Amino acid sequence: MIKFDGVSYIYNHGLACEKIALDNINIEIDENKIIGLIGKSGSGKSTFVQLFNKLLKPTSGKIFIDKKRIGLVFQYAENQIFEITVEEEIGFGIKKYAPEKKIKRILEVLDLVGLDKSYLKKNPFELSGGEKRKVAIAGILILEPEILILDEPTVGLDLKSQKEILENIKNLKQKFNMTVIIVSHDMNVISEFCDKVIFLRDGKIIFYGDTYKVFDLNDFDLELPWTKKLAKKLVKKNFFVPENIILFNDLVKYVVKKIKEKKN
Amino acid sequence: MNVGKFYNVESVIHDISVELKFLFLVLFSIEIFFINKFWVYIVILFLILILIKLSRVPFKLFFRNVKIVLPMILLTSGLNIFFISQGNVILKFFFIRVTDYALNLILTMMCRIITLLFFSLLIMFTTSVNKLSRAVIYIFMPLKNFLPVNEIAMILNIALRFIPVLSDEFDLILKAQKSRQIDFDDKNIFSKVKNYVSVLIPVFILSFRRADDLALAMESRCYNPDNNKKKVLKKIKFERVDFYALIFISVVHVLIFFLIISG
Q1: Which of B8, B180, B201 sits opposite A143 (nearest CB)?
Q2: S-S: A131 plus which of A22, A127, B58, B244, CB 3.0-4.6 Å?
Q3: Contact call for residues A194 and A34 (beta carbons, < 8 A)
Q4: A195 and A256 belong to one structural domain
Q5: Together in a domain, B10 and B83
Q6: Cα–Cα distance between B75 and B228 in angstroms, integer?
Q7: Longest Cα pair distance anywhere in chain B, in angstroms?
Q8: Of residues B147 and A251, which shows the higher confidence score?
Q9: How many contacts (CB atoms, under 8 Å) link A and B?
Q10: How far is B14 from chain A (nearest CA, A)?
């Protein structure tokens, strides 16, 4: 169970500069799914995810989570790297393990993030941005989280690294059946990888439901994924496209099918 | 820690000219080392508390900062107690001898640090960084032939401006490492220190990277501190509030001066 009951969070509570980051959040989040968390800058996304593993305590309200291990990967996760080898960096969270067990786990998570064992003795500071991010994510995965939260996991990375990281996360979810929460401003990422979406605005939840439904909200004020933009343009040209089509491949299949039907 | 964070509210103390505040801070910092009586500090602290009330900055912000420094003050004071043997012994416990002279000295030193801390925080919370660096330029301008005034002001400006940024970064990395199950509340002091290395190294790296980026950004915008032709200094207006502040400052300084002389 992941449930927020009347949760509010106020920064600098009681001071003149206090700011309400979250305002009376009531939500029960589906487990074992990839959940997207969207909203404009300052809408309370980062505050929301920090409440999951008690890094922040709510100003009011209660949080019920029956999972013990919650991994949170922050924005620019590579900034938290401090050890001199990839092996030590990833293994820091399990330093009390026996050496054989430790190295086995490190190799497992390295594989999960798409890196091989040749990285073990490398200096993490000398890796590329995408590789550093993968090492940082591996440092969280080694703790075997039951809920994995990623705050903008692909920000600042090239398209290839973005794709690799997101595919790895998708595989992880399928392999371990964990709940994954992805915070992102990129609606293409959200539409492609998330089963459900939480839409925050000014600290309030505007919407929680299936991903495809959020893009049809009347007051959706974020950039649409480009597949959805294309679908909307087709609808304007009197070419009906079902609202649940948000992936490029699905759209192509649907359009080809319709054209074939028309020809016949 | 809130050092370097401007608390943006309207108040009489916020309105006082920053040059006057800075002057008061400099004079006060010098004078305070000549005060040796404990009760004088109580009077000064009381005056500062009135100023804090007038500034509309919550007391808890000040106490939060003092609380952070307090263990260090208590530790140094505690060490001093054992090493000063001058004066009459008022407490004897095995080899520990506490004298009246040591006690007076320690209490005075503690009051001195706390008073200075309170006063510096008051100036910080009520003055924006830009105004503070402008004040430095004005005050040191007569020395521009001997001192690189603009550079000093620029360094001060950057240093103060980046304290909150680095503090936020420290906080963020601390949270990130906590998410990796790194225990910062470990009772073993050695593992606690070792665990903090996981925060300090990334913060240092980020600070150097930030400094490098800033230097490049300044150079790309043709920053030249010695190019005074382009600098237009704003004319300072002496407002009514500054006049009252000046009277207050003068009275306080005369009072402190007499207290020092009489002591």
Answers
A1: B180
A2: A127
A3: yes
A4: no
A5: yes
A6: 48
A7: 70
A8: A251
A9: 57
A10: 14
A153 touches chain B (CB under 8 A): no
Give the domain extent around A258: 224-264
B178/A55 Cβ within 8 A: yes
Enumerate the residues of chain B whose CB falls inside 8 A of the CB of residue A51.
none
Both A30 and A146 in a single domain? Answer: yes
Per the listing, tokens 């090492």 go with A135
The burial class, CB within 10 Å (0-12 / 13-18 / 19+), for A7 is buried
B135/B174 same-domain check: no
Answer yes or no: is B229 within a domain: no
pLDDT of residue B71: 86
Query: pTM to 2 decimals?
Result: 0.75
The kind and range of the H/E element at A4 are: strand A2-11
Q: Which residues of A touch B201 (CB under 8 A)?
A: 82
CB-based contact B179 A71, cutoff 8 Å: yes
Q: What is the mean pLDDT of residues A174-187?
A: 90
pLDDT in tens, A144-179: 889 999 999 888 888 888 888 888 888 888 888 899
CB contact at 8 A, A6 and A166: no
CA distance B103 to B101: 5
B102 close to B91: Cβ distance less than 8 angstroms: no
Are B179 and A55 a contacting pair at CB < 8 A? yes
Q: Is residue B135 domain-shared with residue B176, that is, in the same domain?
A: no
| pLDDT, averaged across chain A | 89
Residues of chain B below pLDDT 70: 1-4, 225-235, 263
pLDDT band at A248 (very low <50, low <70, confident <90, very high): confident
Does residue A219 sit within a domain?
no
pLDDT at B227: 64
Nearest CB to A55 within list B175, B201, B206: B175
Q: Which of 16-45 (A) contact B at CB < 8 A?
A: 16-17
Least CB-CB distance to B179: which of A16, A72, A125? A72
Interface touch A72/B198, C-beta < 8 Å: no
**What confidence score (pLDDT) does residue B74 get?**
86
